[in-house]
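Complex 286.
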Amino acid sequence: MTARSVKQLIRAHAVTEGAGVTVHRTIGTPALRNLDPFLMLDHFGSDDPDEYIAGFPDHPHRGFITFTYMLDGHMLHQDSMGNRGDLRAGGAQWMKAASGVIHSEMPQQTNGLMRGFQLWINLPASEKMSDPAYQEFSAEAIPEANTEGERVRILLGEYAGQRGVIEDPITEVQYLDVALESQHTFSHTLRNDDSAFVYVFEGSATLGATPLPQHSLAVLSPGEALALTAGPDGARFILVSGKPVREPIVQYGPFVMTTREEVEQAMRDYRDNSLVRKKAAMRSSI
Ligand code: MN
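Predicted structure with manganese (II) ion bound:
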Protein backbone atom coordinates (compact mmCIF):
# COMPACT_ATOMS: atom_id res chain seq x y z
CA MET A 1 0.00 0.00 0.00
CA THR A 2 1.24 3.47 -0.90
CA ALA A 3 1.52 5.75 2.11
CA ARG A 4 -0.17 9.14 2.07
CA SER A 5 2.20 12.05 2.78
CA VAL A 6 1.78 15.83 3.05
CA LYS A 7 1.65 17.38 -0.41
CA GLN A 8 0.96 20.95 0.73
CA LEU A 9 0.52 22.68 4.10
CA ILE A 10 -1.90 25.63 4.18
CA ARG A 11 -2.03 28.15 7.02
CA ALA A 12 -5.54 29.42 7.79
CA HIS A 13 -6.35 32.84 6.37
CA ALA A 14 -8.68 35.22 8.28
CA VAL A 15 -11.61 36.30 6.05
CA THR A 16 -14.60 38.52 6.87
CA GLU A 17 -17.94 37.00 5.87
CA GLY A 18 -21.65 37.42 6.49
CA ALA A 19 -22.46 40.50 8.55
CA GLY A 20 -18.84 41.03 9.60
CA VAL A 21 -17.90 37.58 10.92
CA THR A 22 -14.25 36.47 10.90
CA VAL A 23 -13.66 32.91 9.73
CA HIS A 24 -10.41 31.00 9.26
CA ARG A 25 -10.33 29.75 5.69
CA THR A 26 -7.92 27.25 4.17
CA ILE A 27 -9.56 25.68 1.08
CA GLY A 28 -10.90 28.51 -1.11
CA THR A 29 -7.97 30.92 -0.63
CA PRO A 30 -5.28 32.03 -3.13
CA ALA A 31 -2.95 29.34 -1.68
CA LEU A 32 -5.50 26.59 -2.42
CA ARG A 33 -8.40 27.61 -4.68
CA ASN A 34 -10.06 24.22 -4.31
CA LEU A 35 -9.28 20.57 -3.60
CA ASP A 36 -11.75 18.84 -5.93
CA PRO A 37 -14.51 18.06 -4.81
CA PHE A 38 -13.95 20.49 -1.88
CA LEU A 39 -14.53 24.16 -2.69
CA MET A 40 -14.11 25.79 0.70
CA LEU A 41 -13.29 25.03 4.34
CA ASP A 42 -14.04 27.61 7.03
CA HIS A 43 -13.22 27.15 10.70
CA PHE A 44 -15.23 29.56 12.79
CA GLY A 45 -14.75 30.09 16.46
CA SER A 46 -14.86 32.63 19.21
CA ASP A 47 -14.56 33.00 22.94
CA ASP A 48 -15.43 36.71 22.71
CA PRO A 49 -19.12 37.21 23.59
CA ASP A 50 -19.30 40.36 21.40
CA GLU A 51 -18.11 38.60 18.28
CA TYR A 52 -20.37 36.63 15.91
CA ILE A 53 -23.55 38.34 17.08
CA ALA A 54 -24.31 39.39 13.51
CA GLY A 55 -24.01 35.88 11.99
CA PHE A 56 -24.89 35.10 8.39
CA PRO A 57 -28.26 36.67 7.47
CA ASP A 58 -30.23 35.50 4.40
CA HIS A 59 -27.93 34.43 1.55
CA PRO A 60 -28.28 32.10 -1.47
CA HIS A 61 -26.46 28.94 -2.58
CA ARG A 62 -26.62 27.03 -5.87
CA GLY A 63 -24.65 24.12 -7.34
CA PHE A 64 -23.08 22.42 -4.32
CA ILE A 65 -23.48 21.01 -0.78
CA THR A 66 -22.70 22.76 2.50
CA PHE A 67 -21.68 20.54 5.42
CA THR A 68 -21.67 22.20 8.84
CA TYR A 69 -20.24 20.61 11.98
CA MET A 70 -20.68 22.40 15.31
CA LEU A 71 -18.05 21.73 18.00
CA ASP A 72 -19.21 24.24 20.65
CA GLY A 73 -22.13 26.61 20.89
CA HIS A 74 -25.01 26.19 18.47
CA MET A 75 -26.36 27.55 15.19
CA LEU A 76 -29.88 28.74 14.55
CA HIS A 77 -30.83 28.37 10.91
CA GLN A 78 -33.85 29.06 8.80
CA ASP A 79 -34.50 28.92 5.08
CA SER A 80 -36.83 30.33 2.47
CA MET A 81 -38.64 26.98 2.19
CA GLY A 82 -39.84 26.88 5.78
CA ASN A 83 -37.16 24.62 7.30
CA ARG A 84 -35.75 25.85 10.58
CA GLY A 85 -33.65 24.33 13.27
CA ASP A 86 -31.01 24.69 15.94
CA LEU A 87 -27.82 22.77 15.24
CA ARG A 88 -26.32 21.99 18.64
CA ALA A 89 -22.76 21.14 19.73
CA GLY A 90 -21.57 17.86 18.23
CA GLY A 91 -24.32 17.88 15.60
CA ALA A 92 -23.95 18.14 11.83
CA GLN A 93 -25.98 19.41 8.90
CA TRP A 94 -25.62 18.28 5.27
CA MET A 95 -27.45 20.69 3.01
CA LYS A 96 -27.62 19.92 -0.69
CA ALA A 97 -28.35 23.39 -2.05
CA ALA A 98 -28.31 22.07 -5.65
CA SER A 99 -30.84 24.15 -7.69
CA GLY A 100 -31.16 26.76 -4.95
CA VAL A 101 -31.58 27.55 -1.27
CA ILE A 102 -31.73 30.91 0.50
CA HIS A 103 -31.05 30.64 4.21
CA SER A 104 -29.67 32.31 7.31
CA GLU A 105 -27.10 30.79 9.68
CA MET A 106 -26.77 32.49 13.06
CA PRO A 107 -24.09 30.97 15.33
CA GLN A 108 -24.72 31.31 19.06
CA GLN A 109 -22.34 30.89 21.98
CA THR A 110 -22.82 28.54 24.89
CA ASN A 111 -20.91 29.63 28.02
CA GLY A 112 -19.00 32.12 25.84
CA LEU A 113 -17.84 29.49 23.36
CA MET A 114 -18.68 28.86 19.71
CA ARG A 115 -16.64 26.70 17.32
CA GLY A 116 -17.31 24.74 14.18
CA PHE A 117 -16.50 24.00 10.55
CA GLN A 118 -18.26 24.56 7.26
CA LEU A 119 -17.15 22.59 4.21
CA TRP A 120 -18.45 23.18 0.66
CA ILE A 121 -18.62 20.02 -1.45
CA ASN A 122 -19.01 20.42 -5.21
CA LEU A 123 -21.73 18.62 -7.18
CA PRO A 124 -21.25 17.21 -10.70
CA ALA A 125 -23.07 19.12 -13.49
CA SER A 126 -25.71 16.36 -13.61
CA GLU A 127 -26.71 17.14 -9.98
CA LYS A 128 -26.35 20.91 -9.83
CA MET A 129 -29.98 21.64 -10.76
CA SER A 130 -31.48 18.71 -8.83
CA ASP A 131 -33.80 19.30 -5.87
CA PRO A 132 -32.36 20.56 -2.57
CA ALA A 133 -32.21 18.19 0.40
CA TYR A 134 -31.22 18.31 4.07
CA GLN A 135 -29.87 15.82 6.55
CA GLU A 136 -29.37 17.07 10.09
CA PHE A 137 -28.45 15.01 13.14
CA SER A 138 -27.69 15.82 16.76
CA ALA A 139 -24.57 14.68 18.64
CA GLU A 140 -26.33 11.62 20.10
CA ALA A 141 -27.01 10.22 16.62
CA ILE A 142 -23.37 10.45 15.45
CA PRO A 143 -21.54 7.12 15.92
CA GLU A 144 -18.22 7.01 17.76
CA ALA A 145 -15.41 4.45 17.76
CA ASN A 146 -13.50 4.50 21.06
CA THR A 147 -10.31 2.51 21.46
CA GLU A 148 -7.21 2.91 23.65
CA GLY A 149 -5.76 6.37 23.00
CA GLU A 150 -8.28 7.49 20.37
CA ARG A 151 -11.87 8.59 19.86
CA VAL A 152 -13.26 8.84 16.34
CA ARG A 153 -16.61 10.47 15.57
CA ILE A 154 -17.97 9.27 12.22
CA LEU A 155 -19.80 12.17 10.57
CA LEU A 156 -19.79 10.85 7.00
CA GLY A 157 -18.65 7.51 5.58
CA GLU A 158 -17.31 4.49 7.42
CA TYR A 159 -14.73 3.78 10.08
CA ALA A 160 -13.96 0.56 12.01
CA GLY A 161 -17.10 -1.14 10.71
CA GLN A 162 -19.45 1.70 11.70
CA ARG A 163 -21.24 3.92 9.23
CA GLY A 164 -22.16 7.57 9.79
CA VAL A 165 -25.85 8.40 9.87
CA ILE A 166 -25.59 11.13 7.20
CA GLU A 167 -25.26 9.83 3.63
CA ASP A 168 -23.21 11.67 1.00
CA PRO A 169 -23.98 9.45 -2.01
CA ILE A 170 -22.59 11.63 -4.81
CA THR A 171 -18.93 12.31 -3.97
CA GLU A 172 -18.88 9.68 -1.17
CA VAL A 173 -17.25 12.02 1.32
CA GLN A 174 -15.75 10.53 4.46
CA TYR A 175 -15.55 13.00 7.37
CA LEU A 176 -14.05 11.93 10.70
CA ASP A 177 -13.39 13.94 13.88
CA VAL A 178 -10.38 12.26 15.53
CA ALA A 179 -9.11 12.93 19.07
CA LEU A 180 -5.79 11.32 20.05
CA GLU A 181 -3.99 11.10 23.36
CA SER A 182 -0.37 12.22 23.62
CA GLN A 183 1.95 10.33 21.19
CA HIS A 184 -0.81 7.96 20.03
CA THR A 185 -0.71 6.91 16.36
CA PHE A 186 -3.93 6.77 14.34
CA SER A 187 -3.88 4.49 11.27
CA HIS A 188 -6.47 4.41 8.53
CA THR A 189 -6.89 3.24 4.93
CA LEU A 190 -8.31 5.57 2.28
CA ARG A 191 -9.25 5.00 -1.35
CA ASN A 192 -6.12 5.65 -3.42
CA ASP A 193 -7.45 8.41 -5.69
CA ASP A 194 -9.74 10.28 -3.29
CA SER A 195 -8.75 13.86 -2.51
CA ALA A 196 -7.99 14.07 1.21
CA PHE A 197 -6.98 16.58 3.87
CA VAL A 198 -6.32 16.84 7.60
CA TYR A 199 -7.05 19.99 9.64
CA VAL A 200 -5.58 20.03 13.16
CA PHE A 201 -7.64 22.22 15.50
CA GLU A 202 -6.33 21.16 18.93
CA GLY A 203 -2.80 20.16 19.92
CA SER A 204 -0.47 19.06 17.14
CA ALA A 205 0.40 15.98 15.09
CA THR A 206 3.01 14.64 12.69
CA LEU A 207 2.53 12.74 9.44
CA GLY A 208 5.77 10.96 8.55
CA ALA A 209 8.42 13.61 9.20
CA THR A 210 6.05 16.56 8.59
CA PRO A 211 4.77 18.49 11.63
CA LEU A 212 1.12 19.59 11.39
CA PRO A 213 0.70 22.67 13.57
CA GLN A 214 -2.63 23.79 15.00
CA HIS A 215 -4.89 25.64 12.50
CA SER A 216 -3.10 24.31 9.45
CA LEU A 217 -4.58 22.17 6.68
CA ALA A 218 -2.48 19.37 5.20
CA VAL A 219 -3.37 18.31 1.65
CA LEU A 220 -2.49 14.62 1.36
CA SER A 221 -0.79 12.94 -1.60
CA PRO A 222 -2.65 10.05 -3.30
CA GLY A 223 -2.27 6.69 -1.57
CA GLU A 224 -4.03 4.32 0.75
CA ALA A 225 -2.23 4.07 4.08
CA LEU A 226 -2.43 7.00 6.48
CA ALA A 227 -0.69 7.23 9.87
CA LEU A 228 -0.79 10.32 12.08
CA THR A 229 0.91 10.64 15.46
CA ALA A 230 -0.24 13.07 18.15
CA GLY A 231 2.18 15.55 19.71
CA PRO A 232 2.93 15.84 23.46
CA ASP A 233 -0.43 17.54 24.20
CA GLY A 234 -2.47 15.13 22.08
CA ALA A 235 -4.25 16.13 18.89
CA ARG A 236 -7.73 16.68 17.54
CA PHE A 237 -8.30 16.98 13.82
CA ILE A 238 -10.80 16.40 11.07
CA LEU A 239 -9.83 13.94 8.34
CA VAL A 240 -11.89 14.42 5.19
CA SER A 241 -11.73 12.63 1.83
CA GLY A 242 -13.93 12.35 -1.26
CA LYS A 243 -14.10 11.49 -4.96
CA PRO A 244 -13.03 14.33 -7.28
CA VAL A 245 -15.75 15.59 -9.67
CA ARG A 246 -13.16 16.43 -12.41
CA GLU A 247 -15.33 19.07 -14.13
CA PRO A 248 -14.76 22.81 -14.72
CA ILE A 249 -15.51 25.01 -11.69
CA VAL A 250 -17.00 28.46 -12.37
CA GLN A 251 -17.69 30.24 -9.11
CA TYR A 252 -19.17 33.59 -8.28
CA GLY A 253 -19.53 33.80 -4.50
CA PRO A 254 -22.30 31.39 -3.45
CA PHE A 255 -23.01 30.13 -7.01
CA VAL A 256 -20.78 27.30 -8.24
CA MET A 257 -21.55 25.98 -11.71
CA THR A 258 -19.64 24.51 -14.68
CA THR A 259 -20.12 27.39 -17.17
CA ARG A 260 -20.24 31.18 -16.99
CA GLU A 261 -23.74 31.16 -18.54
CA GLU A 262 -25.03 28.99 -15.68
CA VAL A 263 -23.56 31.38 -13.11
CA GLU A 264 -25.16 34.34 -14.90
CA GLN A 265 -28.47 32.45 -14.90
CA ALA A 266 -28.13 31.89 -11.14
CA MET A 267 -27.54 35.63 -10.60
CA ARG A 268 -30.59 36.49 -12.75
CA ASP A 269 -32.72 33.91 -10.91
CA TYR A 270 -31.65 35.32 -7.54
CA ARG A 271 -32.43 38.88 -8.67
CA ASP A 272 -35.82 37.79 -10.12
CA ASN A 273 -36.73 35.89 -6.97
CA SER A 274 -36.77 32.53 -8.79
CA LEU A 275 -33.62 30.93 -7.37
CA VAL A 276 -35.61 28.68 -5.05
CA ARG A 277 -37.53 26.14 -7.12
CA LYS A 278 -38.45 23.41 -4.72
CA LYS A 279 -38.86 22.91 -0.98
CA ALA A 280 -36.13 20.72 0.43
CA ALA A 281 -36.90 17.34 1.93
CA MET A 282 -35.55 17.01 5.51
CA ARG A 283 -34.07 13.91 7.17
CA SER A 284 -33.31 14.66 10.76
CA SER A 285 -33.16 13.51 14.36
CA ILE A 286 -33.61 16.97 15.88
MN1 MN B 1 -24.97 29.30 3.89
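The mean pLDDT is 92.
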